[in-house]
């Protein structure tokens, strides 16, 4: 049976602006929730945050850094001025995000991070998806496919997002490689950055043109996965090149159920649960209750060979997306 928690990651997608809102509850704890882009993944993170804020009776201020370090700093400074009790944040960088959050910590503000790491002792707690495991699970699915379809031999191209979020991208890529490289007949032909669909269509298309022997493409995020599928379709290589990816969206689930046989498997995160547990943990810290300093959430794998699992997952997914759009 499918895990009842929704799993989805758009890890890296197109920004659509900032939405700063507050669910005010006078006299209660004030918690700032910061994400770094406006996409399906972070919308569901925010839904989880809001549900937790409602359940625990706290005020939630929402902010979006739009992938801009200076805006992240500005938001943190604003919340310091507003005297929030805690900041729940997806930091843009494990190192560059430290200074502003350290200032907040020195003012007594509790820091809970999610979606990325932070190399600092200012963290009160961390809610993390196991980024490496996202690559590992997709890698296992790809290794099985290569063994069954290509007798253990394959030429692989990888699309990542190192220039955007190097720590996350490297963790996912290393996880994927750790599995496929168990097959001596596997060779990674190309490895490039492309995290938006339009970028990935061009990069994957160029790779397939320059390297016609490539028969597997793996992408480290949603946009790259979408673009890889489209590139295979556009070059007429459906059935000859298989795509494995990361993140789960309605579009990617549709690709898995399509009869074109291009996308074979994706591994995604659990954004609603990430957002909920991040705010819940912040509340526990503020109330001096027992809490877990580090929560690691496993990913969820969906594969073409199990369509019923995909359809069951779609039902849960659509319920949360409908809620997020209200």
Brief account:
The chain is α/β, with parallel strands linked by helices and 326 residues long.
Report what the structure shows.
It is a single chain. With 326 residues, this protein is α/β, with parallel strands linked by helices. It folds into 2 domains: 21-129 and 270-299, Rossmann fold (3-Layer(aba) Sandwich); 131-268, Rossmann fold (3-Layer(aba) Sandwich), CATH 3.40.50. It has 10 helices and 13 strands. The chain has a 7-stranded mixed beta sheet with strand order 1-3-2-4-5-6-12, with helices on both faces. Strands 8-7-9-10-11-13 form a 6-stranded mixed beta sheet, sandwiched between helices. Helix 1 (40-56) crosses helix 10 (307-324). The longest helix is centred in the middle third of the chain and has 19 residues, at 131-149. The two termini are 29 Å apart.
What low-confidence regions span 5 or more consecutive residues with pLDDT below 50? Answer: 1-26
The strands making up the biggest β-sheet line up spatially as 1-3-2-4-5-6-12
CATH architecture of the largest domain: 3-Layer(aba) Sandwich
Total number of strands: 13
Q: State the secondary-structure class.
A: alpha/beta
End-to-end distance: 29 Å
Q: How confident is the prediction overall: mean pLDDT?
A: 89
| Radius of gyration from the alpha-carbon trace, in angstroms | 20 Å
The arrangement of helices and strands along the chain is EEHEHEHEEHEHEHEHEHEHEEH
Tally of DSSP helical segments: 10
Query: What is the C-level CATH assignment of the largest domain?
Result: Alpha Beta
Number of domain units: 2
Please report which band the strand proportion falls in: under 5%, 5-15%, 15-25%, 25-35%, 35-45% or over 45%: 15-25%
| CATH fold category name of the largest domain | Rossmann fold
Helical residue percent? 40-55%
Spatial shape:
elongated
How many strands, what sense, and barrel or not for the largest sheet? 7 strands, mixed
Q: CATH H level of the largest domain: which superfamily?
A: Response regulator
């Amino acid at each position: 049976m499918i895990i009842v928690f929704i799993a989805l990651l758009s890890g890296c997608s197109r920004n659509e602006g900032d939405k700063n809102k507050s669910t005010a509850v006078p006299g209660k704890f004030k918690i700032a929730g910061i994400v770094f882009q406006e996409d399906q993944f972070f919308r569901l993170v925010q839904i989880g945050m809001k549900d937790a804020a409602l359940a625990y009776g706290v005020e939630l201020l929402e902010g979006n850094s739009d992938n801009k370090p200076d805006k992240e700093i500005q938001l943190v400074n604003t919340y310091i001025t507003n005297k929030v009790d805690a900041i729940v944040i997806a930091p843009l960088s494990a190192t560059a995000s430290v200074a502003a959050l350290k200032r907040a910590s020195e003012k007594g503000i509790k820091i809970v991070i999610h979606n990325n790491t932070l190399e600092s002792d200012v963290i009160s707690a961390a809610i993390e998806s196991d980024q490496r495991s996202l690559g590992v699970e997709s890698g296992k699915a790809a290794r099985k496919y290569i063994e069954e379809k290509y007798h253990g031999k394959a030429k692989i191209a990888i699309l990542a997002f190192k220039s955007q979020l190097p720590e996350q991208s490297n963790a996912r890529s290393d996880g994927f490689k750790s599995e496929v490289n168990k097959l001596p007949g596997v060779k990674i032909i190309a490895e490039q950055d492309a995290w938006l669909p339009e970028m990935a269509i061009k990069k994957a298309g160029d790779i397939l043109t320059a390297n016609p022997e490539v028969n597997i493409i793996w992408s480290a995020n949603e946009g790259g996965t979408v673009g890889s599928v489209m590139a295979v379709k556009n070059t007429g290589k459906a059935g000859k090149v298989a795509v494995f990816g990361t993140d789960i969206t309605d579009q990617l689930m549709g690709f898995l159920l399509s009869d074109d046989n291009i996308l074979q498997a994706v591994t995604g995160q659990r954004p609603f649960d990430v957002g909920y547990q991040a705010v819940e943990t912040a509340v526990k810290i503020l109330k001096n209750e027992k809490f877990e300093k580090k929560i690691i959430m496993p990913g969820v794998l969906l594969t073409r060979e199990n369509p019923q699992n995909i359809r069951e997952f779609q039902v849960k997914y659509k319920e949360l997306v409908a809620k997020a759009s209200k």
